[in-house]
């Protein structure tokens, strides 16, 4: 399987990596996500919600960097399996279990 | 040779007196053959058949319900993952859109700079809400 990081070592937020880390994102970046959604509901203009969007992106990138540091091997295998099976959770249960054992979410 | 020479009876006067040569039953007749219906009346009763059908159907529907619950849980997992990722993707798209929109506004200002009374930028709709630009193209740089 490939790796989730690019040449520098930063994790690249491809769809496979995002779907693999989705449960972590859902718990750890919950406040930022909700703030952006509320801002969008009030005013769908993209220029008005840019700062909240930046907070969301920063939260997600920090989270990916944490995961890449703590359990990069399991994250790589899980994201590789997701990439192979086009983001279907049912085909990657084994990698998912190992990933959640290595990096449990809060 | 002829029929008369085969079925000859001594002392017969004409051909009409020849004895009969037929294929017939053996002496004493054939054995009796039963042709009456004898459909037996045993087996499950109507109530038993109905209960068995109803039981099979309800067990099958119960299995269908269990399977649907499992499938719904899988779908919920997929939707929850998509909901968690959605703001990230929306934020990225917002950044890209704002950049392109600024370029577009500059282009519009350049084209319409000699037209009197043209307020550059957003003279779209009057409702006050923001609507996405309706050019019919989603990503003009790609298409």
From TrEMBL, chain A:
* Keywords associated with the record: Disulfide bond, Electron transport, Mitochondrion, Repeat, Respiratory chain, Transport
Q: Which InterPro entries match?
A: NDUFA8
Coiled-coil blocks: none
Q: Where in the cell is it found?
A: Mitochondrion
Tell me where on the tree of life, at the top rank, the source sits: Eukaryota
Belongs to which family?
Answer: Belongs to the complex I NDUFA8 subunit family.
| Task of the protein | Accessory subunit of the mitochondrial membrane respiratory chain NADH dehydrogenase (Complex I), that is believed not to be involved in catalysis. Complex I functions in the transfer of electrons from NADH to the respiratory chain. The immediate electron acceptor for the enzyme is believed to be ubiquinone.
Q: Which PANTHER family match?
A: NADH DEHYDROGENASE [UBIQUINONE] 1 ALPHA SUBCOMPLEX SUBUNIT 8, NADH-UBIQUINONE OXIDOREDUCTASE
What name does this protein carry? CHCH domain-containing protein
TrEMBL record, chain B:
Family annotation (Pfam families): GRIM-19
Q: Which UniProt keywords apply?
A: Electron transport, Membrane, Mitochondrion, Mitochondrion inner membrane, Respiratory chain, Transmembrane, Transmembrane helix, Transport
| Localization annotation | Mitochondrion inner membrane
- Indicate the transmembrane segments per the record: 43-62
Q: State the InterPro entries in the record.
A: GRIM-19
Tell me the membrane topology, using the record's own terms.
Single-pass membrane protein
Q: What does this protein do?
A: Complex I functions in the transfer of electrons from NADH to the respiratory chain. Accessory subunit of the mitochondrial membrane respiratory chain NADH dehydrogenase (Complex I), that is believed not to be involved in catalysis.
Query: Would you identify the family this protein belongs to, as annotated?
Result: Belongs to the complex I NDUFA13 subunit family.
Task: From the Swiss-Prot or TrEMBL record, give the protein name.
Answer: NADH dehydrogenase [ubiquinone] 1 alpha subcomplex subunit 13
Give the species. Answer: Penstemon davidsonii
């Amino acid at each position: 399987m490939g790796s989730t990081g690019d040449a520098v070592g930063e994790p690249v937020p491809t769809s496979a990596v995002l779907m693999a880390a989705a449960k972590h994102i859902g718990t750890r970046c919950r406040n930022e996500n909700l703030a952006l959604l509320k801002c969008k509901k009030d005013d769908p203009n993209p220029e008005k919600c840019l700062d909240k969007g930046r907070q969301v992106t920063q939260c997600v990138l920090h989270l990916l960097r944490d995961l890449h540091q703590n359990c990069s091997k399991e994250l790589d295998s899980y994201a590789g399996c997701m990439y192979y099976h086009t983001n279907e959770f049912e085909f990657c249960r084994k990698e998912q279990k190992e990933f959640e054992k290595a990096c449990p979410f809060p | 040779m002829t029929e008369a020479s085969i079925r000859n009876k001594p002392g017969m006067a004409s051909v009409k007196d020849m004895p009969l040569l037929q294929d017939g039953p053996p002496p004493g007749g054939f054995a009796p053959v039963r042709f009456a219906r004898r459909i037996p009346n045993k087996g499950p009763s109507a109530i038993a058949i109905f209960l068995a059908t109803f039981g099979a159907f309800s067990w099958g529907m119960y299995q269908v319900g269990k399977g649907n619950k499992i499938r719904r849980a899988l779908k919920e997992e997929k939707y929850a993952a998509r909901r968690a990722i959605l703001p990230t993707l929306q934020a990225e798209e917002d950044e890209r859109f704002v950049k392109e929109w600024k370029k577009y506004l500059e282009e519009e200002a350049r084209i319409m700079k000699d037209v009197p009374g043209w307020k550059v930028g957003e003279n779209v709709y009057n409702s006050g809400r923001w609507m996405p630009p309706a050019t019919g193209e989603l990503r003009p740089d790609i298409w």
